[in-house]
Amino acid sequence: MNVEQLPLGPLGTNCYIIEQEKKALIIDPGSEGEKLIRMIERREISPVAILLTHAHFDHIGAVDEVRDHFSIPVYVHKEEEDWLGKPELNGSKFFQMGQVTARDADHLIELGTINMDGFTFEVRHTPGHSPGSVSFWFKEQSFVIAGDTLFQGGIGRTDLPGGDMKTLQESIEDQLLSLGDDTKVYPGHGGRTTVGEEKVMNPFL
């Protein structure tokens, strides 16, 4: 399994392409849909779904373009099923980069172990940055896609709709730091880290 991190858009939001046997999961296509589509087609891989760690504007900007091009479904947590089309919820209303919207997700993502076209992973609810934030834990490969919950040396902001610092800290403690210290953490912004490094070095934990 290959994990490719692709920073997109003015905020450098990390989109992830999880590739296995010429199939791929696309996580958080936040912007630059044409660039993302070209990269996938050059590699001759077939996307099977778009997964959203949460529905903030910088994580959903290219959802419709990529969804329509590849004819694949979009998954989001039920707490944010209404956010894609509402700038006042997805946060784009509060920034000077234009209002961002996308059509509703095709499916509400289930918590627990998921088997999707040969990909096996666990969906963990990690609210605090936003109420519907989730993390995708690939146990066998020992990595987690954490969205804007946990960063290298930082944690997610909590000043947007539905944010709550206590909830965020509890999510990190219960759902992420409980993973093995060697577990690689792929965040929504910035570079990769590990659970063990953040336990020791993160000043917010």
UniProtKB/TrEMBL annotation:
The keyword Lipid metabolism does not apply. SMART domains: Lactamase_B. This is MBL fold metallo-hydrolase. PANTHER family: HYDROXYACYLGLUTATHIONE HYDROLASE GLOC (PTHR46233). InterPro entries: MBL_Glyoxalase_II, Metallo-B-lactamas, RibonucZ/Hydroxyglut_hydro. It holds the Pfam family Lactamase_B. The lineage of its organism: Bacteria, Bacillati, Bacillota, Bacilli, Bacillales. Keywords: Hydrolase, Metal-binding, Zinc. Its cofactor is Zn(2+). It comes from the Bacteria. CDD domains: metallo-hydrolase-like_MBL-fold (cd06262). Residues 12-189 form the Metallo-beta-lactamase domain.
